[in-house]
């Protein structure tokens, strides 16, 4: 089993996603659900390709956190 962080971003009219631990592994979709499914499939293919090429599957190192900014921020 593998577990990779996936970043999903809202773009103009669609969604895009990538995994910081898998350079070049990206996906898009018209909805949040579609981009999740497409990214899942992209990661499966990416990892299978690494295994078939006898290349190492990178160990996940990326993580995410939300930071709460409580002070009033002005431009």
Automatic annotation (TrEMBL):
Cited InterPro entries:
HicB-like, TA_system_antitoxin, TTHA1013/TTHA0281-like
- UniProt xrefs under SUPFAM superfamilies: TTHA1013/TTHA0281-like (SSF143100)
What's the domain of life for this entry?
A: Archaea
List residues of the HicB-like antitoxin of toxin-antitoxin system domain. 4-67
The name on file for this protein is Type II toxin-antitoxin system HicB family antitoxin
Species whose genome carries this gene: Candidatus Ethanoperedens thermophilum
Q: What is the lineage of its organism?
A: Archaea, Methanobacteriati, Methanobacteriota, Stenosarchaea group, Methanomicrobia
